[in-house]
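To: structure desk
From: M.T.
Subject: fold request, one chain
Message: Could you run this one when you get a chance? Sequence is below, nothing fancy, just the single chain.
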Amino acid sequence: MGLSVMPNDWMEVDFEINKIILENRLNEGDAFDMPMVFKAKDQLEIVFNNHDDEKRRVYGFKYLKGKWKTDELDDFYLMGFCDEVAFGKIKNT
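Reply: Done. Structure tokens follow.
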């Protein structure tokens, strides 16, 4: 019998604080560097340190009633039923 492996980010205080900060920022008018039109139930996944399993942090959001809300995204659903629209690095200004 195997042991369950839980993600380590759910126990971090900073994870919850960052999730709130990201949600607030996504709902500001200048959050994206290009004009974007979102539809209800659009999903956004923000990943930090994608190439380092120890430092990797994933934040999920869903667009509901004209606002981004934090959401637990299902990776298998995303891979199987959703299209990746954009991918890139965050530019420091």
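Reply (cont.): The longest helix spans residues 13-26. Let me know if you need anything else for the meeting.
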